[in-house]
């Protein structure tokens, strides 16, 4: 069945239907990774977005039981070139097409994704629809879409829950948590409590954490007023490690301006460099935010920059045990270069515990 991807600027990309056959409207996002479609589709950082895969062939490995980053998916649609629609992964339970039908997510295949990528790279991210026709009504529907600033409230946990272990007590503020992040904390024996994004500092204090981790997630950081207020209240008490959207929240809590790229970077091959040692990591990134090295960072000190653009993608606080990165250290998908950041977090907590013991 012939269907169409209609962009906000009126550009139309024809294709063939797969997945659910409903109409959908969302913000079009280009994902450039050659692998990892299951992890991307179930990553809450893509909430409310139509996810277009630049790599031309998708679906060969199916959907397996191990690579979910969330229980379901919060995306609005999937756009691909060629759909292999196989189940070659040895744990595969269903094909990509079957998964999209189950999740009621419409898909569009046989799209010229190379042309689509070049268009978005030139004109920036924009709203789009997947529909049966491309008449005036379709364009009106795109114009009528109001993108919510606070999308975290759709995906953050509603109630606190534990992920028990025998090590450091870590509170994870859930802005759109990935399962792999919890797995990495579990490997390091962290005793985790996951809390909603709007949890006040008084509740966090009762949990007596050794450290706070603020996850990645969707939407605009300035909409997370309660999270920003919580960070302001707790950052003098606990070590903090922030990722992605959490990176932007901590920056705003410290009165540092957060910049937004018109063309979002969603990839698994980003080169970032540590400013002092010049060490380079290849990492996965799903974020549009960055800090500018040409503007004052106040009490924050830039630690990692993107090699190609010199955007500040990592910082630490000059006086407090706080550091943040604007890429995914847990990968999933992508290279594992960033896993050492979890070990750095443990060292930060241990140093803070030792300091408190000396003070008493």
Automatic annotation (TrEMBL):
It catalyses: hydrogencarbonate + L-glutamine + 2 ATP + H2O = carbamoyl phosphate + L-glutamate + 2 ADP + phosphate + 2 H(+). Its EC number is 6.3.5.5. SMART domains: CPSase_sm_chain. Keywords: Glutamine amidotransferase. Pfam families: CPSase_sm_chain (PF00988), GATase (PF00117). Gene3D superfamilies: 3.40.50.880, Carbamoyl-phosphate synthase small subunit, N-terminal domain. Residues 1-131 form the Carbamoyl-phosphate synthase small subunit N-terminal domain. InterPro entries: Anth_synth/Amidotransfase (IPR050472), CarbamoylP_synth_ssu_N (IPR002474), CarbP_synth_ssu_N_sf (IPR036480), Class_I_gatase-like (IPR029062), GATASE (IPR017926). GO terms for molecular function: carbamoyl-phosphate synthase (glutamine-hydrolyzing) activity. The keyword Amino-acid biosynthesis does not apply. PROSITE patterns: GATASE_TYPE_1. It is an enzyme of class 6 (ligase). This is carbamoyl-phosphate synthase (glutamine-hydrolyzing). It comes from Lapidilactobacillus dextrinicus.
């Amino acid at each position: 069945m012939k269907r169409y991807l209609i962009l906000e600027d009126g550009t139309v990309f024809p294709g063939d239907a797969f997945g659910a056959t409903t109409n959908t409207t969302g913000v079009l996002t280009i994902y450039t990774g050659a692998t990892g479609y299951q992890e991307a589709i179930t990553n809450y950082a893509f909430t409310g977005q139509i996810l277009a895969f630049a790599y031309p062939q998708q679906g060969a490995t199916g959907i397996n039981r191990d690579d979910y980053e969330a229980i379901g998916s919060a995306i609005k649609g999937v756009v691909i070139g060629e759909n292999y629609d196989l189940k070659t992964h040895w744990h595969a339970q269903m094909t990509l097409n079957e998964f999209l039908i189950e999740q009621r997510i419409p898909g569009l295949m046989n799209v010229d994704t190379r042309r689509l990528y070049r268009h978005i790279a030139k004109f920036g991210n924009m709203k789009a629809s997947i529909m049966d026709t491309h008449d005036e009504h379709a364009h009106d529907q795109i114009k009528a879409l109001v993108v919510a600033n606070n999308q975290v409230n759709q995906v953050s946990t509603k109630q606190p829950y534990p992920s028990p272990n025998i090590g450091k007590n870590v509170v994870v503020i859930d802005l759109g948590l990935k399962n792999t992040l919890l797995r990495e904390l579990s490997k390091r024996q962290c005793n985790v409590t996951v809390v909603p994004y709007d949890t006040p500092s008084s509740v966090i204090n009762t949990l007596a954490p050794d450290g706070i981790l603020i996850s990645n997630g969707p939407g605009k950081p300035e909409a997370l007023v309660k999270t920003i207020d919580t960070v302001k209240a707790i950052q003098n008490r606990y070590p903090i490690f922030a990722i992605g959207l959490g990176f932007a929240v901590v920056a705003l809590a410290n009165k540092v301006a957060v910049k937004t790229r018109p063309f979002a970077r969603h990839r698994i091959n980003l080169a970032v460099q540590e400013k002092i040692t010049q060490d380079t990591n290849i990492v996965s990134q799903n974020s549009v935010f960055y800090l500018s090295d040409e503007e004052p960072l106040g009490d924050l000190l830039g630690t990692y920059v993107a090699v190609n653009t010199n955007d500040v993608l990592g910082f630490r606080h000059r006086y407090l045990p706080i550091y943040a990165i604007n890429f995914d250290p847990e990968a999933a998908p992508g290279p594992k270069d960033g896993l050492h950041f979890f070990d750095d977090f443990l060292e930060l907590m241990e140093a803070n515990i030792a300091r408190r013991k000396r003070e008493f």
